[in-house]
User: Fold this.
Amino acid sequence: MLSQPPSTTGLELNQTPKPAPSPSSSQSLRPSPPKSPQQKSPSLQQKSPSPQQKNPSPKPKPKRPGRKLLAFDRRLGARFIAGTDEAGRGSLAGPLVVAGVLLDYGSLRDHRVRPLAQLNDSKQLTPAGREELFRAILACCSKVSVRAISAREIDSNGLHRSNLAAMRAILWELAPPAEICLVDGFRLGPTAPEHKAVVDGDEKSAAIAAASVVAKVVRDRTMRRLAALYPHYGFSSHVGYITPGHSAVVRERGPSEIHRRSFEARCYAEQRAEPTIDEVRNDDSLQTGFSGRAAQVGATS
Assistant:
């Protein structure tokens, strides 16, 4: 008996033919190529170091503004250079302090000049930085001169005139031996030693910047000591400059003996608008005297 030939479809009679896979499904079902022995799973792969990790950038060098200021002075070609500057021009109370510094560039080399590497305009420094530089300047400079102009003298002679007079006197104390005298922005007139006015000099010249630090430190120390004599004004914090708290105390208590009365400050005007206790007493005495004389005149008439 002959066997039945196999079906040409290769399917049993009770099976339905399966649809042919679509091109997209055939791609999804396509087996992935075998991984090479060197290829690892993403979780096991080691991240290659970035260029920054391979060659880390060097740490930035600390800024040394003093080098630029010292170079400015050295380019002038003189050995002894004097600089002068002031502190407290815009203060409402306390003295105006003017300082002068003489630098000997013939000896300011190597280890002697290193303490001045952080020298800068006093306004750009922190209080602690100014104190540290103050000690360095005293150790490095050849001579220092300081003058303080009181509030009473400022009121009598004027702020600007008092400032220029103090700068002239200081430069005469430093020259000679100073060969070049530098001033922060001002011309001092024909009665001063020969000098050069440098605009923004405390940001350019080491001699002027050193004078600005000395003047600022001396004045701040003076105001902190005066705070003990006038405790209500808060001089230890604002060192005499105008602040809302300082103005409020002046309006309430009036100016102290070290306030500059010639300044046109709003707190002065507001304080004068309200009569003080002494003015009230004087007014009462005048009223009493006037009424007494009026009574006498009425009695005699």
Remarks:
- Confidence is low (pLDDT under 50) at residues 1-16, 24-29.
- The two ends are 175 Å apart (CA to CA).
- The first helix runs from residue 23 to 28.
- The chain has eleven helices and five strands.
